[in-house]
Amino acid sequence: MGSLAGLLMCLTGMFALQGCAGLAVSESGSSDERPPAAVLPMTIRTLNTEHRFTQIPTAAVAQQLHALHVGEPLNILAISGGGSGGAFGAGAVAGLTRSGSRPDFALVTGVSAGALVAPYAFLGATWDSRLLGAFTGEAADNLLQARGLGAIFGSSLYRGTPLKHLVEAYVSDSMIEAVSREVDRGRLLLVATTDVASGQPVVWDLGSIARNGGPSARALFCDVLVASASVPGMFPPVIIRLQDGGAHQEAHVDGAATVPFFVPAAFVQAPSEAFGRAHAAAVYVIIDGPLAEAARTTRLTARGVLSRSIDAGLNHLLLATLELTAATAQLQGATLHYSAVPAAYPYLDAFDFRAVTRRPLFRYAYECAQKGRLWAEIRRTDNDEGTAGRAQLQKVPCPSDDPFIGYFATR
Fold first, then answer.
1. Nearest alpha carbon to residue 319 among 74, 80, 112, 11
2. Among 137-141, 312-316, 375-379, which stretch is predicted with the lowest mean pLDDT?
3. How far apart (Å, rounded) are the C-alpha atoms in residues 348 and 367?
C-alpha cells in the first residue's frame, strides 16, 4: 500500500474487526455453543429455493460441480483484491478473449476488487464491452468522498454511498438473469467477504442468489459485492439481512481482510473415479497487484515503520496463499497458471481510482494477455526431477517475463 491511506485502512480495519464493531453487531447464538472457527470445515453460503441461506460444506458443492462436468477438465479462475489494481484483472480477462485463449471457467471466485471483476469473467466474452466500461470509465473517479468530522465517530474515513451506487450502476437485471442462466449450465460464482463480528471469511454463492433470490436478487447480489470491496476503515461495513431459519443481520467488510484470494482445495481435487491428466483441474489466479514491492526508502518514524511492516505482512500472506495453492494443485495433478503486476510496473497506488490511472493498467494487462504473455505456470511433472515447469522469460515486460514472478514458479 505504502500510503497514509493504506496505514489508516489497516489500523482502523483491525479495530473495527476486533472491538468497535462489536458495539453494533454480534454473533447470532452463544459463542460457547460453537467450536472455534479454525476447526470448522470451509462452507459455502448458498441461497435455496425457499429464499433461505444454508451453509453447505465445500466438499459437497465441489462434488456436485464435478458431477455436472463428468469427463471434462475443471477450469477454475480466482481473482484477488487490489483496489484500483482491479483494472489489471479486468484487462487480463478481456485480453484472453482477444487472444482466443480464454477458458470456459466452471468456477470463478473473487475477493474485493476481484469480486467486482468476477461476474464479468463468469459471464464470458459477450460481457467484455461492459467490463471495459466498468473498469476504465470515469464513474469511479469520485469514489473516495471523505466524511469529514463524521469519520471520527463513524466506522469509516469515506462514505459508502459512492461505492454502492457504482456497483448498482453495473449490476443490472440482465446481469442477474445471465448469471442465473450460467448456473443452470452447471457453473459456479463465489465471492468472499469478512464477517465483522466473527472476523472470519464468508464465501457466498452468488449464482444461487441470482437464481433463487426472486425480486430481492439484485439488491442482495449488490450488497455482497459492495461488502467484498469495502476496505475496513476506508468504507463502512455493509449490513446484510439474512433469512436462514431465523431472520438476523450481519455486518460484512472486504474479503481481502482475511483472504487475498481463494481456490477451495475440494474443487482442485479430481473425483475418485477420474484418472489421468485429462480430468485434472486447471487453476488460474490473477493477482491485482505485485507479488513483491520494490525496495523503497522508509522513514524511521512510527508511522513509516508501522506502514512498511503492515505492507510486508500482507505481502507474505499473499505469497503464502499462492504457495499453498500451488502445493495443492501439484499434489492433485492440476496445473496452476498465475499472473501479477510486475514490480517494474510504475508505482500503483491501490487507492488511486482515477480513470487516468486505471486505463493504462487495463491496457497493459489486455496487451500482455493478447500476446500470450500473461501467465507464469506451475504444472505437474511426470519426470524424476520433481521440479516445477519453468516460465519462459522474454524481453517484453509482461507478467510471464518478470524475473521474480517466473522465479516463484521454480521455488
1. 80
2. 312-316
3. 18
